[in-house]
Amino acid sequence: MNHALPLLVGIPLGMAILTLLLSKVSARIADFTAFITVAVTTVIAFMLMGSPVHTYWMGNWFPPFGIVLVYDGLSGLMLLIINLIGLLSIIYSFSYMEKYTAKPKFYSLFLLMLAGMNGVVLTGDLFNLFVFLEMASLASYALVGFGVEHQELEASFKYLILGTVASTMILLGIALTYSMTGSVNMADVASTLSAMPAKTTIAFAAGVFLMGFSLKSGLVPFHAWLPDAHPSAPAPISAMLSGVLIKALGVYAMVRVMFNVLGAMPIYQDIMLVLGGISMIVGVLLAVGQYDLKRQFAYHSVSQLGYIVLALGLGTNLGMIAGIFHLINHSLFKSLLFLTSGAFEHATGTKSMKKLGGMGQLMPVTSTSMVIGSVSISGIPPFNGFFSKLLIIIACIASGHIFLGVLASIASVLTLLSFTKAMRFSVFGEIPEKLANSKEVPFPMAFSMIFLAVICLGVGIAYLVAGPTFTDIFLQPAADVLMDGLHNNSVNYITTVLGIGG
Amino acid sequence: MIEYVSLYILTMALMGMGIYALIAKRHIIKKIIGIVTMEYAINLFLILVGYRTDGIAPIQDSQISAAELAARAVDPLPQALVLTSIVIGLGTLALMASLAIKLYEKYKTFDMSEINRLRG
């Protein structure tokens, strides 16, 4: 299975170009090629799940000289989420993207973004991380502005400016790290750093990295671009951006670099706690006042990202498990919510809560999916969001951060309030006259939403019925990777990558 | 040693100028210039990391032994990284410029403070 790792990056990258070329022959073929590509990568990601930690040397250059791809528990879980949400977004796009003119270009950019994200979570090389990160980011800037209307362009430009600042900061961090260690291979850097005394340059590099990745993941106070960019994109792209992009490029890259490469630094864990706590509260407070469905969901992304970073910043095993669990759950229900808001927009032409109403009678499938997504994110049992939020609050209290635990509970109540409002104005209530003829969305869109809603419920029930087994299979391997970096100087990671004989 | 320090300071000053242009200027093109200045400051920084006074090009031929090359040549890795980073910067610049043109077509202005339909 060793050769599967480069395929996860290579297939979408190659097909991104081929899709454009093939679309010159027939416009319809783009749907098909994009679907097949993402289906193949999803199958590979599923088959890799549970396989042991292993590496792949690009071009057979052995580390630390060549680029190395590393598969471990955390990468595996991220790959699964990225490709699964990607596949469902592609299916959704079959019907949704009909109203845009350049469908093949959309698929091409989509696949480029997917290849970039797969690369980010697989790579074991700092500079390679930067290259994949820029690849995914550039594709996402273009996708946010895909509608080429006033608001899309404005959002795309803001996102582009702040995203480029973030990338520049990350490159500066890489340059500083290289100047101290003479290597860009993550495992090599980690082993060099653990052998030498703490240096201020590395602490500065860590600060620069933290700023860059926080900007990429849209944590408060770096969130200004997020509520503009995510709602302006077409719905499947909103789902991809909020669901997986900010996590792969932001949270995943942050914890990988901070914990596994640069090693434990208590001061930066405290900063992560502060950033997470502020994002959690400020995000949800800003969300409550919104009357635009997608904009509200985008603010909730800021808030939920706060939960994840807070839990990961705690640095305990339970915190890691809770953070990673919430990361998966948020990917599932946030992409579901963005897809449902897109379905409302597709059917009625508006995403403003003030103009919607009574959709439960006209569009039962979309409305049910939205209710499931809303109760999941609000943390109502037995849906998945409840368990991960509960774990986060328990982890906060168990590690002695009572205040943060209380803060997390308050944010959870406010989330419920905000989603009660969203449902009151869109799903329930009276049907406005103008929208009386709205019809349920076509099958591909409905399929994606039902599928995600079922997984949301399924994950919740699976955790309720077989919590320990679920944790052992999915969450513990990923948490182990981070714990190894935080408390063990990444010894396991270094041995895997630089291991004798490879 | 002293000229190294001043070079680092100049690089960081260049980056500061880029950030200033990005934050303080309202004109889209000036913002873009700010970003490009910033990127190039980082590229210069990377080159400086691998720089060595009176260093030679890191190319090995029959006249120079491997040990001598290692002792005298500049570090080639940052140069390779900068090459990649410049190409990425070019891609970003192309996208920024095309967005600026599209924004001008829609809003008939390059002033970022007048492009403010997204609020809340």
Structural overview:
The complex is a heterodimer of chains A (502) and B (120). Chain A is mainly alpha-helical and 502 residues long. Helices cover 77% and strands 2% of the residues of chain A. Chain A is built from 19 helices and two strands. In chain A, helix 3 (73-96) runs antiparallel to helix 10 (235-261), helix 4 (103-122) packs antiparallel against helix 5 (126-144) and helix 13 (317-348) packs antiparallel against helix 18 (443-487). The longest helix of chain A has 45 residues, at 443-487. The mean pLDDT of chain A is 91. In chain B, helix 1 packs antiparallel against helix 2 (28-49) and helix 2 packs antiparallel against helix 4 (76-107). Chain B is elongated. The model of chain B has no long low-confidence stretch (mean pLDDT 89). Chain B has a single domain, classed as Helix Hairpins, CATH 1.10.287.3510. Chain B is built from four helices and no strands.
Largest sheet data of chain A: 2 strands, antiparallel
Q: Which term fits the overall shape of chain B?
A: elongated
Low-confidence stretches of chain A: none
Q: How does the helix and strand content of chain A classify structurally? A: mainly alpha
- Give the end-to-end Cα distance of chain B, rounded to a whole number of Å: 52 Å
| Helical proportion of chain B, percent range | over 70%
Query: What is the correct CATH architecture of chain B?
Result: Orthogonal Bundle
Measured by residues with Cβ under 8 Å of the partner chain's Cβ, the largest interface is:
A-B, 38 and 32 residues
CA gyration radius of chain B, whole angstroms: 20 Å
Number of helices of chain B: 4
| Sheet with the most strands: spatial strand order of chain A | 1-2
The count of strands of chain B amounts to 0
CATH class of chain B: Mainly Alpha
Q: Helical element count of chain A?
A: 19
Under CATH, the topology of chain B can be stated as Helix Hairpins
Amount of beta strand of chain A: under 5%
- H/E series of chain B, N to C? HHHH
Helix and strand composition category of chain B: mainly alpha
